[in-house]
Design brief:
about 120 residues, globular
Length: about 120
Amino acid sequence: MNIEAVVLDVHPLLYFLHEVISVGKLENKFQFNLKKEIKERYPDCIVTKLDANDIQGIPDLLILYQDKWATLECKKDSKAKIQPNQPYYVEKMNEMSFSKFIYPDNKEEVLNELDKIFKK
């Protein structure tokens, strides 16, 4: 048994923290790759990370392309926890322009919808 397994077995809080960090890494990797794909798909767009510390629940990414904009809330999968206020802001911003929850399983569907908004 490796040391990590021993530590995680001994202390439930350490196990919980390990899981939180692992989930965060998966979501961050997905978000990083998504930003790269969006920039390739929409040349000259601006993709920036929004600050949830400023407005709790605001979507993760803002995409500016020509005279249009969109926001995306990135999740590691379809069962990932939705934070308070996230549905509110995704719905509100979708009424204004385009905003969706996005995760690996629905990524192509969401990006195809975004193509229609950005008229690509």
